[in-house]
């Protein structure tokens, strides 16, 4: 894989998201957004894999990305199909530029997060390294945590008795956002899995992957806005404030006190 191929993959991500964005904007639907995000990972990973040597490492990495992408895509599509709309887009859905800006970031994010994987496909190593075992285990742990957290959240919200209440059971009794912890851990695991294939400045560019996804999930689309929303809903509720004081914000830990 040549350096130019990195930019070709970015162009593929931008093109895929732009075409489907036009459909989403024209029909004013939110059902394509998250589905396109997860699909972008499969498309880019497969394109990079197709130009690689088919080694154990590249095959396994493709499976890791595909498993995560399919699980997340199906979960998010099922959720939005039930919700009908995503409240995040209520103020921008009618604006071609502002709604399109979200899709632009989505396309670039898929490319940035896949940088370590692209380097692996480019190198196509055929010798197994102990760091790959560590990365694989961290990826698997992150995937399991994210999956369990999503299932617990989906079942909680599906119960009418839980309306207007926060989730504080299961993994959510040890972290206020265990799904995001699992997501970040998973991409950290893939970065470690890719480390033996990285050289020089490649480490710096590849490190953007876990750093970027952590930044987005903590400060932009995840924890920070959700914490503000929860505070508006339950800020005066003593039970919620107790839950907040005694429960880790991200990393699952034993409850304080």
Please trace the helix and strand order, writing H or E for each element: HHHHHHHHHH
Query: Please, how many domains?
Result: 2
Low-confidence stretches: none
**Shape designation:** globular
Helix content: over 70%
Structural class: mainly alpha
Mean pLDDT: 93
How would you describe this protein?
There is one protein chain. The chain has two domains: 1-127, no CATH class; 128-257, no CATH class. It contains ten helices and no strands. It has helices spanning 3-27, 33-50, 56-83, 96-113, 115-123, 130-158, 178-194, 201-220, 223-234, 238-246. Helix 1 packs antiparallel against helix 2 and helix 3 (56-83) runs parallel beside helix 6 (130-158). It is globular, with a radius of gyration of 19 Å.
């Amino acid at each position: 894989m040549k350096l130019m191929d990195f930019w070709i993959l970015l162009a593929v991500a931008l093109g895929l998201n732009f075409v489907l964005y036009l459909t989403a904007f024209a029909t004013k639907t939110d059902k394509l957004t998250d589905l396109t995000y997860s699909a972008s990972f499969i498309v880019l990973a497969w394109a990079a894999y197709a130009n690689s040597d088919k080694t154990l490492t590249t095959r396994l990495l493709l499976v890791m990305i595909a498993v995560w992408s399919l699980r997340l895509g199906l979960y998010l599509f099922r959720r939005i199909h039930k919700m009908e709309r995503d409240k995040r887009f209520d103020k921008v859905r009618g604006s071609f530029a502002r709604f399109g800006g979200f899709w632009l970031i989505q396309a670039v994010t898929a490319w940035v997060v896949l940088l370590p994987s692209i380097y692996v496909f480019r190198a196509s190593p055929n010798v197994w390294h102990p760091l790959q075992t560590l990365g694989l285990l961290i990826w698997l742990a992150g995937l399991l945590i994210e999956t369990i957290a999503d299932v617990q959240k989906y079942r909680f919200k599906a119960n009418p008795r839980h309306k207007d209440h926060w989730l504080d059971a299961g993994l959510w009794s040890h972290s206020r956002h265990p799904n995001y912890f699992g997501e970040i851990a998973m991409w950290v695991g893939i970065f470690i899995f890719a480390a033996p294939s990285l050289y020089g400045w490649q480490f710096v560019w590849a490190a953007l992957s876990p750093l970027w996804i952590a930044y987005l999930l903590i400060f932009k689309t995840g924890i920070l806005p959700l914490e503000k929303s929860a505070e508006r809903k339950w800020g005066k509720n003593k039970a919620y404030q107790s839950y907040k004081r005694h429960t880790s914000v991200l990393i699952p830990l034993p409850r304080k006190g």
